[in-house]
Each structure stands twice: as C-alpha cells, then as structure tokens.
Amino acid sequence: MLNATMLVSQHRGGANIIIAFAGCIMDRAKYLERISVSEGELSPDIESLRRLQRAHLLTVPFENLDIHWKRPIVLDVERFYHKVVVERRGGFCYELNGLFNELLISIGFTTRLISARVFNGKEFTPKFSHAAIIVTIGEEEFLADVGFGDFTSEPLSFAPEAEEIDPTADFVIRRYDEGLFEVAKRDSGSWKSEYLFKDEPHELSDFAEMCDFQQYSPLSHFTKAKLISIMTPTGRKTLTDTKFIVTDGSDRRETDVTGDDEFYSILLAEFGIKRPTEHQNT
C-alpha cells in the first residue's frame, strides 16, 4: 500500500494534518469535514472504523456520471480526492475505496486493498471487477467497503461462516473454493451472493485494466446508463436515466424520470451535483 507522510501546518484552532500520498497532497481535515466527522474523536479502533464507514456512505454517493460525461477515470488518489472532497462528488469502487483506504492509513489503521469478483445475477465477473478493503485491528480483521452501493453500512467481521446483523441486512462471509471467500446477503430468507474475494493485497494500479473496461466497454453495465445512489439514515436514494427511487424503512417510492432535464433537476436537488457545462444542451 502507499506510504503516507504527515505534514503539519498551523491554523487558528490548532494543527491541520496534511497527508502526502506518493507525491500528492490531501488535507485530512477537509476530507473528514466532507464526511461530517470530527477528527478529534478518531483512533485506529473498530468504533472509529464503523463511524467512518457509515459517515462516508451517508455523504459520498456511489455514481458513474463521469463515464457518461466522457471524463476519463484514472487511478490516481489525488484525482479521487479532488473529485470527492473538492468537487463534492462521488465515484465508483476504485475511486471511493481507493481514497477511503488512504484516509484509514493516515489515521493509523493497517489495511490492504483486495480484488473482488461481483455476482451479476448469472455469474461472477473477472478478477479486479471490484476493489474493497481488509482492515486489521489487533487480532481481528474486518471487510470495509464504501464503494458497492446498496451493501453493508458498517464493516463486516472477517470471521468466515459467522452471520452478522448489519443495520441494512444480514450478511455472512463464508469460504468458497480455491482460497476464495464469498460475501452473501440474506434476501427473502435465503442467502444471495454479493461478491467473491481472495485475501491477498493489491496496489491500486493492479485494477487499471478492469477500470478501463468498466468505463469504456459496451459490455460493462456502467456504460449502459447513468446511476447515482446514496444511503440515507432510513434507507436509500437512487437516480437513473429512467427512475428516481427512494426507500424509507419498508416504504419504497418510485418516480419516472422523463428526460435529461428532469434527471439533472433531481441530481441537483437530491444530490447537490450540477449539470456539467459541456452537457447543458444534451
């Protein structure tokens, strides 16, 4: 994993931590402000990890808009930071978990990026289709993921076969085969696979080929339609080219989206993201 160098600058109210990752500079205080977390309450323990993951999911959406705006997604932590923190946008798994991983490292967590193969309803996608994070805290390990959309709201204990009750649903990590582990979610009384992963560390650059596939291939589901989704305290908001869906507890409201003008109106009102100037007339 990338090494972080701490730089401390003074400002009114105390020291501000600036983190340099492989030559890029990120302001940790601004990142934490973006996800509405106070830095003074954090330490590399499970309580902080839970708080950080939940806060991230409540404030940073999962979205693929750059793909449809013809803006290349490059695996570069500084670009992730600018998009998520400065532009107050979201991203997809490589961006969100790539950036979140560096935040965790800066706080003192021991982490490793892992590759996952997503179950698409018929089969598992290739290696590097998804990036997630394993976090080591003392003698325990946890799966953290802020880049998979409608998934866990808190880290899952990496304790194979142990069922866990997350605020969103019940989950289990279980042994699969050939050294793989399966993450499954209980749906209507039965376990449905979410993704497979192998517990081996990877660099962000290892995901480059699949990142290109996800954003450019006509076979990628990300290229087929615009999508943005965010967890709320009581459910989720999801916007696509054709639907705006709000879940609130057991209540689900679905509204048709009739065109780009309505899409971008909802995008601004519900997610705070403006229509790019180059797409004003599209």
Structure characterization notes:
The chain is α+β, with helices and mostly antiparallel strands and about 280 residues long. About 25% of the residues lie in helices and about 35% in strands. It folds into two domains: about 40-205, Arylamine N-acetyltransferase fold (2-Layer Sandwich); about 235-280, no CATH class. It contains seven helices and 16 strands. α4 crosses α5. About 35% of the residues are buried. Mean pLDDT is about 90; it is low at about 1-15.
Give the SSE layout:
Blueprint: E1 4-11, E2 14-21, E3 24-27, H1 28-34, H2 46-59, E4 62-63, H3 65-68, H4 77-86, H5 93-107, E5 110-118, E6 130-137, E7 140-144, E8 156-157, E9 163-165, E10 170-175, E11 180-187, E12 190-198, H6 208-216, E13 227-232, E14 235-240, E15 243-248, E16 251-256, H7 260-271
Antiparallel strand pairs: 1-2, 2-3, 4-13, 5-6, 5-12, 6-7, 7-8, 9-10, 10-11, 11-12, 13-14, 14-15, 15-16
In short, what is this structure?
With 282 residues, the protein is α+β, with helices and mostly antiparallel strands. Helix content is 25%, strand content 34%. The protein contains seven helices and 16 strands.
What spatial form do the alpha-carbon principal axes imply? Answer: globular
Q: Classify the fold: give the CATH topology of the largest domain.
A: Arylamine N-acetyltransferase fold
Main beta-sheet annotation: 8 strands, antiparallel
Question: Structural class, please?
Answer: alpha+beta
Q: How many structural domains can be distinguished in the coordinates?
A: 2
Strand order in the largest sheet: 8-7-6-5-12-11-10-9
Name the CATH class of the largest domain: Alpha Beta
What Rg, in angstroms, do the CA atoms define? 19 Å
β-strand percent reads 25-35%
- Estimate the helix proportion, in percent: 25-40%
Low-confidence stretches: 1-15
Order of helices and strands: EEEHHEHHHEEEEEEEEHEEEEH
CATH architectural arrangement of the largest domain: 2-Layer Sandwich
